[in-house]
Amino acid sequence: MKTIKVANIPGDGVGKEVVPAATEVLHALADLHGSLKFEFTEFPWSCEYYLEHGAMMPEDGLEILKEFDAIFLGAVGNLKLVPDHVSLWGLLIKIRREFEQVINIRPAKLLKGVQSPLVNPKDFDMIVVRENSEGEYSSIGGNIYKDEDEIAIQNAVFSRKASERAMRYAFELAKKRNKHVTSATKSNGIIYSMPFWDKVFKEVAKEYPEIKTDSQHIDALAAFFVTHPEKFDVIVASNLFGDILTDLGAAIMGSVGIAPAANINVNGKYPSMFEPVHGSAPDIIGKGIANPIGQIWTAKMMLDHFGEEDLGTILLDIVESVTADGFLTPDIGGSHTTKEVTDEVIARINNYKSEKLNEKT
Amino acid sequence: MKTIKVANIPGDGVGKEVVPAATEVLHALADLHGSLKFEFTEFPWSCEYYLEHGAMMPEDGLEILKEFDAIFLGAVGNLKLVPDHVSLWGLLIKIRREFEQVINIRPAKLLKGVQSPLVNPKDFDMIVVRENSEGEYSSIGGNIYKDEDEIAIQNAVFSRKASERAMRYAFELAKKRNKHVTSATKSNGIIYSMPFWDKVFKEVAKEYPEIKTDSQHIDALAAFFVTHPEKFDVIVASNLFGDILTDLGAAIMGSVGIAPAANINVNGKYPSMFEPVHGSAPDIIGKGIANPIGQIWTAKMMLDHFGEEDLGTILLDIVESVTADGFLTPDIGGSHTTKEVTDEVIARINNYKSEKLNEKT
Ligand SMILES: CC(C)[C@H](C(=O)O)[C@@H](O)C(=O)O
Ligand SMILES: CC(C)[C@H](C(=O)O)[C@@H](O)C(=O)O
Predict the structure, then answer these.
(1) Bridge-partner residues for A130, per DSSP?
(2) Within 13 Å of residue B239, how many CA atoms lie on the same side as its CB?
(3) Superfamily of domain A1-104+262-361
(4) Whose C-alpha lies nearest to ligand 2, atom 12?
(5) How far apart, in Å, are the Cα atoms of B181 and each of B15, B128, B194, B224?
């Protein structure tokens, strides 16, 4: 029996609705597998937790999480309770940083039965590799002067090490896909970090002569996501650019509620974290209509990460059959609830299992 | 006779094709007006100029430009000749900075006859007010260490003065429009500049109780441009965020070749600069198929700027009648040339004039 120990952090808002849903799905899959087991431990770390304890997680929170194989997170943030930069740097970004989850990967691909907002979305299937440890998200900077003279300075930090690492990850991924890597840049406007990024990209590209490459300025690239999403395979981007592109990717997929993501610790020292692209979605909390597919697809990425690609593929196929058959939450034009969609996914997993058993007998 | 002295800088690539086109249109409009005259002086400053002179413009370039009422620019950049950060900081961004063109305004609105890539674009009509003097585009930063240790640092600088100024501009604009200002932020990820931006926005908003406000993170906002563009009226954004949003705005308008822009000097000390959103478009140079509408619509913004709003409205109505009747360049699905579209616009201006004359007799 292979046991995967997962720390569940539902977090805020709809996180609390979709993490339990996807957890059930994972149990059903483990069941289907036969010799795989998930052990989930839930942690209530969130903005509500902050109000009670003055911190987003206990002081030894990271020590606790370190013992797990993976972290399965919903969403963090509740502006009514805690300013975003406090909640996120105290939990989400803290885990990404401290556990050296230096790569964030986010596929964008249209599921059958889901309507894209694009007239002619063609058959896009891309994956954004986001540098997840530095760049525009740094804690270097501050304010000076008061009142009308006040100035805030924010430092973006780009190291060759981290840039190369993200780029190599992208090239390795492209090898297994359509052999095309696009670099997101802005070297025409941002004159220190982005020309540097371009230089490193060109050097890394030389190591992969079999991979086609191009560089696009982030403004043009964002526009291309709308006009020609089918032109991309793997895109490598800085922290901020990756953030923007993946929300756009989610939008053209039909809903941010669908889009999956993984924060990967590449050196194996710490657990990786699996959390969908969407946030806590304050407007629909408690209505039972949050789209569980983002979290379920994120679970597939966790399966892939643990070498269970077959199970991952089964799961995504089932999810796609469910959307194709019209089991859709309101964000993608349906009227089904979180529970109905989840139950349908689980029913089909169980069904798949009995079919397989029947085949055997 | 009101004379407007304009410095034309066609720049690179298709800039050289669309600036002359829009200049002809302006002459026709002046003719229609009767007591308005444009005096154009053309400057060859461009990447080719750089190759010959080692600079994008002469040393006294700004002195020369200062004498004009406005600058009418096409596009800057030709990667095959000059690295972008050199060409742009040597001409486009230099003019924006030195002439204190602190505000960049860019409308996004669908023209009749032009197909948006969105399934249901509704009737969006928004305008992005982009802070144009500082932010992520700063010349503060640099590199340290060599080889595998190399690090590049880029400083984003946000002053209260510039942030407030852009925000006030946005609020004043919203007063004359739909009374709604959206602030583009990323205070959950970028922890010094963006919470500061939010703070200033809240304070400025207090001065305009009649204006509805909201703040959206740039990632979500980019996605909203695709899913709900009709929800926006005026959007105020930092230099980089404004850059990204306006290319997206151009994309949902059907083509970056359509989108207009103005760089406004608000204190009246220096000329403002009118340049469309699109770049030099190396892939279509010399084919005669560049869309002239971006540059022509930009000319309308110049007319508005000089108090000729009536003429500006006539021009945009004529442009829209031309697209509605199917005079479209290939980027928007037609097969007309730059010249054909331009000639049609001019013919309709002349026609408008003879109709008016007939009315009078
Ligand atoms: C060419 C580039 C520096 C410029 C910018 O980013 O400002 C362009 O994209 C624009 O939007 O005018
Ligand atoms: C919540 C926020 C800090 C975060 C980010 O920008 O990284 C989110 O948008 C994401 O993409 O995971």
Answers:
(1) A104, A237
(2) 22
(3) Isopropylmalate Dehydrogenase (3.40.718.10)
(4) A277
(5) 32, 10, 17, 15
> What CATH number does domain B1-102+262-361 carry, 3.40.50.300, 3.60.140.10, 3.50.50.60, 3.40.718.10?
3.40.718.10
Q: What are phi and psi of A194, to 5 degrees?
A: -80, -40
Nearest one of A47, A55, A39, A75 to A292, comparing CA atoms: A75
Statement: the pTM of the whole predicted model exceeds 0.90: yes
Size of interface A-B (CB pairs under 8 A): 215
Rounded to an integer, the average pLDDT of A250-260 is 96
Ligand number nearest to the C-alpha of B12: 1
Q: Which ligand is nearest to the CA of B194?
A: 2
Stretch B144-163: mean pLDDT: 96
Between the CA of A189 and the centroid of ligand 1 the distance, in Å, is 6
For B111, which DSSP code? Answer: P
- Does position A361 have pLDDT exceeding 70, yes or no? no
Indicate the average pLDDT of chain A: 96
Q: Which residues lie below 8 Å from residue B159, measured CB to CB, with a gap of 6+?
A: A149, A150, A151, B134
B157 contacts chain A (CB < 8 A): yes
Query: For residues A223 and B354, what is the distance between their CA atoms, to the nearest angstrom?
Result: 41
Average pLDDT, chain B: 96
* B93 close to A (CB below 8 A): yes
A191 lines ligand 1 (CB under 6 A): no
Q: In angstroms, how far apart are the furthest CA atoms of chain A? A: 79
Q: Chain B contact for A261, CB < 8 A? A: no
Contact in structure between A9 and A87 (CB atoms under 8 Å):
no
Interface test with A, best of B81, B145, B153, B167 (most A CBs within 10 A): B153
- What whole-number distance in Å separates Cα of residue B10 and Cα of residue A283? 48
B161: nearest CA in chain A? A148
